[in-house]
Amino acid sequence: MISMNKPAPNFENITAYCHGEFTKISLSSYQGSWTVLFFYPRDFTFVCPTEIKGFQKHQEEFTKLNTKIIAASTDSEWSHKAWFERDLPEITYPILADTTQKLTRDYEVLNEDDGSAERGLFIIDPEGIIKYSLVSAGSVGRSVKEVLRVLAALQSGGLCPLEWEPGAETLGKV
Q1: How far lies 84's CA from each of 24, 44, 98, in Å?
Q2: Rounded to two decimals, what is the model's pTM?
């Protein structure tokens, strides 16, 4: 079961498509930096590319927050390659091919009815601990700006009230 402040489900050597190449990705190689792992339902869809492009558009802001991005779906690496080369060539972060659905099950975002991933997002701290999770309906895209706000809040070390924004005062230390 996914729980806050507990270790993120580990994964080892999952094939990913990354900016023109296939590679193997393990969560352990991201230790030491923050990680945003987000799942999307399917390649060649309508809402998914808006999110995928949104994360890329804000890549520099994530880098400033010592954060790496990983995306995942249950589509194959070949499907990723075909879609990303045709429609999303600017994407530079890895896209995991969870064809076994193990990762999607481990993160509790597998849609058992059709084998796709639900629209899930997890923020994992540098020690591999889950600090934030969000799962939403497939018809609703996420806000990348909200993910950045939450990352900054988590990294602030403070108690962040409603609508807290980076640079604002916190309510004390965690």
Answers
A1: 17, 9, 16
A2: 0.94
